[in-house]
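G.,

No rush on this.
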Amino acid sequence: MKDARLVLAERFNAHPDSRCWHVAWNPAGTLMASCGGDRAIRIWGKEGDAWKCLSVLQDGHQRTVRRVAWSPCGTYLASASFDATTCIWKKKQDDFECLTTLEGHENEVKCVTWAPSGNLLATCSRDKSVWVWEVDEEDEYECVTVINSHTQDVKHVVWHPTQELLASASYDNNICVYKEEDDDWECKATLEGHTSTVWSLTFDPSGQRLASCSDDRTVKIWKCQNLEGSGVCSCATVEDAFGVSRYSPSLTVTSMCCFNRRHVLEVCVHSVRVSWTDRVRYCLVSALHPFFNSQSIYVTITACLQCLRTQCQLTGALVTACGDDGVRVFKEDVTADPDQPTFSLAAHVSKAHSQDVNCVVWNPKEAGLLASCSDNGEIALWRYQEDDE
């Protein structure tokens, strides 16, 4: 594998005297939105060679703003808060106006995300529920379903990139996948494999694979099986890759990838059970064990986002943020069996921030550009570079 590195491009204090919980690029990659414990949302744009704060949205929430998400068109911004509400902001020239406040969750809203169509919005909460909202042409929002498939806090929700398929991650260690059937949203798959809180999820651009990261210090890669007709699992995927019966309602996976202190790829034994209903199935095809400081008491992978393959030359690059203050980039071995992918550590900044790193996200347009944010209130911009670049 080519030698690679993360190079710091810029660092600035985004939320003084407060945690910066999340940062999100707009679809054009020209603006960033950040949020934090100061209850504010800040919009950032580049002026000359430096990023500057263009606007501060302060009147929407009464408590910490945990998450921000741009609509696919880039005109709307959603913000999720510990005050149990979600605000919808509309960009008007150089400013933003709060259009509406979505209420209904009984407790802290942890995440908000737009469907690729822009017509649906999902939120999740400490109240253990996932809500799906529908928006019409008049910018009116209506809750169309409330899903209660988790037994603990729901930490994260993410939409499939091309289908109206939704996944959620929870404190109950599980991942649920939902699909609309007969005007109602139902849980179609429960992915059980993590041994602690699942913090974050991301689909690859094709939607065939899902990455999850957890408080158990692992990143797992799941492969989607969209089955037609009988609902029998694909024998090529299940039998050939895992050596288990195609008719079994559970999968026992006997290998995963891990990194030791020298970041050398190893194989060790691990077991995972996957349960499902109807047509939507996911099976674990790989897992990463990046080495984290064994002295750390609070070590959490809090985000994992995959670079857009259609727009980024860094095919398969996966980046993680961690409670040990580090940022790591993993690269997939393109020569490996796609049903048994292997990843290796390509770049690592051990002290990317002076405190926990809460979020990492690739720029959707500029190859290798990455933003991270931290408990210290900062945003840092990084460039992922390989030697032949």
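When you get to it, here's the other one too:
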Amino acid sequence: MKTLSTLEGNEQMNSPAARLRLEASESGGGRVTPTELFFDLVFVFVVTQVTHAVETHPGWEGLLKGLLPMVVVWWMFSAFGWLTNAVRPDAVQVRLLLVLAMTAFFIMGLDVPYVFEPEGWAFPVAYLAVVVIHGVLYLTARAPSARRAILRNMPFNAAAGVLVLIEPHLPEVWGWVCWAAAVPILYLSPFLGRIRGFVIEPHHFVERHALLLLVVLGESVVAIGIGAESPGGQAVDWPLAVGVVLGIAAAAGLWWVYFDGDEVRAESAFERAGEHRRQLLAYYAFTGAHLVMIIGIILVAAGITDAIHHFHGPVNPWWLGSGTAIFLAGHAIYRAMLKSGRITDRVIGAVCVVPLGLATSFAGWAAMTGVVVVLIIIATVDHRLAS
């Protein structure tokens, strides 16, 4: 004879919420799904918009107005990597909500040029919608600790969105104060709400971020095509062909530095770590260090476009060199956290490539050549010592 508690348990398991949880909360193990890859494509558009904002407003203010929205977007986009590590996107309801979140991210990307203006209300509204979708999906996770963890962190995510929403309606100084508060609220929230309870599956988490970085690297390839465009159009001549070769070489150099066995070593380090250590690694090595690398890629992409546009003339002295240095610094942080490889060559390269970028800014071809040489040396030394 069934007890009352058994009947109540069956009734709870048959409820719509419980069914959704069972459908959505398959094990976080396994490979990245096509749904996640499709979802990540929208991030390329956001990166493209930010790169364009940086290019069209050279200078510190333009750089901040391009990168600050990017930092906020990345926080929530990375959060979806944590989400699909705990909630597999196999259920129809989950896929539909992910498509809805994609739409919101795309709207955020469209509004990047206007986010500091009163008419840029769509960016924070779409961001808040993403926060809600993310929270709703996380509440379907099978692990109770993960559900409790997201409930602790959601208020911080929402608070940052509210600050971005009111920022354009305040005096300029107070607007900057809102941004200066919003970013720390997000990136310190795991510690304010205590980073615990999230369940991290190593293989999926490492692969997801590696593939996402690969997608972002596509922006540096797109930058070559943008740089090759001319107002009246032209056939490929020798200077343009050489510029394309150097641009592809720079993008390939960034790719090689990251994708030379690091994924396997990172996964191994993740698997050896305990539960709490995994959460810290996920935060520092992936959410944090990958943001640094993405910012570097954005600056390199802006620099490649500029260098091909001004192949024989002066170019921005900071974009290519500083972007490469930031990428190398981010990868050094990533390796240091995971103990997955040498960092000395990355640090030396980051220190050297900035003054080299300044010295070679007299011509686009020289600036790209300098960056390519540094990346080739780092990749070659690292590959030989690792083998």
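DSSP finds 16 helices and no strands in the chain. The radius of gyration is 22 Å.

Enjoy the weekend,
O.
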